[in-house]
Amino acid sequence: MSLASPTLASPPAKTAAVPAPPGRPHTRLLALDGLRLVAALMVCLYHYAGRGGVVSASWHQNPGRVFPTLSGAAVYGCLGVEFFFVISGFVICMSSWGRSLGDFFRSRVARLYPAYWVALLLVTGACLVLPAVVHAVRPDEFLVNLTMLQQPMGVPRVLGVCWTLWVEVRFYALFALTVVLPGVTYRRVVLFCSVWTLAAVLSTAAGGPWTELVVMPGYAPYFIGGLALYLVHRFGGRLLPWGIVALSWILGLHMATQGLWRADAPRDPYVVMLVVTLAFAAVAAVAAGWTRRANWPWLTTAGALTYPFYLVHEHLGWFVIRVLHRAWGLPPWPTLAVTVLGMLGLAWLIHRFVEKPFGPRLKRALKYA
């Protein structure tokens, strides 16, 4: 899972350095689909009710005054991003097992870009209609945004949330070049996790923009923890993967608490630690097989909506809030409910009419490029 998770069905595994336990089925893990939507809704509530800035103009005042109780919990919704990264490590390890580098590349491009391009067009169109909320970027900046390389190019982002996609892309590149290229095995994943953890710790001590760009010490523990949890799921409760998970959890607690300590909204460090712990624990429950009974069909739909919902909810949601609440006078709670449901509906439309038909076509086209 990642923000843009591939299908959560594990492909047939090649012969690995350590054999998988007999009888362990490789079926779609529907609980992960549900967890992905939970993480997306956490981020959504943060953007609507847990922060200031542009959304305050849409509500006509700070959300903390509009939703005194909800806002106190929504300020922790930004940790849904760390939750995403743990799920991403798990799912990327699972989906890359037994695949070539070309297969991995095509699946990532076909999964990420169609919905992303449509979201760019929708948000840019909304900016032109209602520039009081967010101003549109220049045409050259929009074209750079189409590549998903706007951040390293120093170009303004059309989608505020796409900074997380740049983090994900760097993780994909690291994992693909060091693990997928030679072939995914238990030992290679363990080595990757170990080396990346060491590099993250050393880069934190040494500092420097290049190490920050490549090693990503602020986010590495979450991806590494997810990778190790997939090893637990695939190979059973071996001590080494669980040790990597424990170390990643400890480092993740520190990174999250340190990163939010001086944020604009007041946050209790103990609550931050609790939310990060619950994120690791939720994915660990999937890895240990405790969620096998969570096989409700609607979870598949929930997982399918997560990525397009994540892309469109922020800026378009602010537009909707401004229209419903400020222009039409709808009370705050109905405005919030209608906005969230509306963004979920839009996400379903993008999934149904963009991702489903065009994702496979793009993947096939890349195979013969």
Name a few traits of the molecule:
15 helices; mainly alpha; 369 residues
Describe the secondary structure blueprint for this structure:
Layout: H1 30-49, H2 54-59, H3 63-66, H4 68-74, H5 80-96, H6 101-129, H7 139-147, H8 163-180, H9 186-206, H10 209-215, H11 220-235, H12 239-261, H13 269-287, H14 298-327, H15 332-367
Helix pairs in contact: 1-5, 1-14, 5-8, 5-11, 5-13, 6-14, 6-15, 9-11, 9-12, 11-12, 11-13, 12-13, 14-15
**Which class best fits the helix and strand makeup?**
mainly alpha
Element-by-element helix/strand order = HHHHHHHHHHHHHHH
Q: What is the CA-CA span between the terminal residues?
A: 27 Å
| Largest sheet features | none
SS strand fraction: under 5%
Taking pLDDT < 50 over at least 5 consecutive residues as the criterion, the unreliable ranges are: 5-26
The overall average pLDDT, rounded, is 89
Helix content, binned percent = over 70%
- Put simply, the count of helices is 15
Word description of this protein:
Helices cover 71% and strands 0% of the residues. By secondary structure, the chain is mainly α. Helix 5 (80-96) packs parallel to helix 8 (163-180). It is globular. 47% of the residues are buried. Residues 5-26 have low confidence and may be disordered.
In a nutshell, what does this entry contain?
It is built from 15 helices and no strands. The protein has helices at 30-49, 54-59, 63-66, 68-74, 80-96, 101-129, 139-147, 163-180, 186-206, 209-215, 220-235, 239-261, 269-287, 298-327, 332-367.
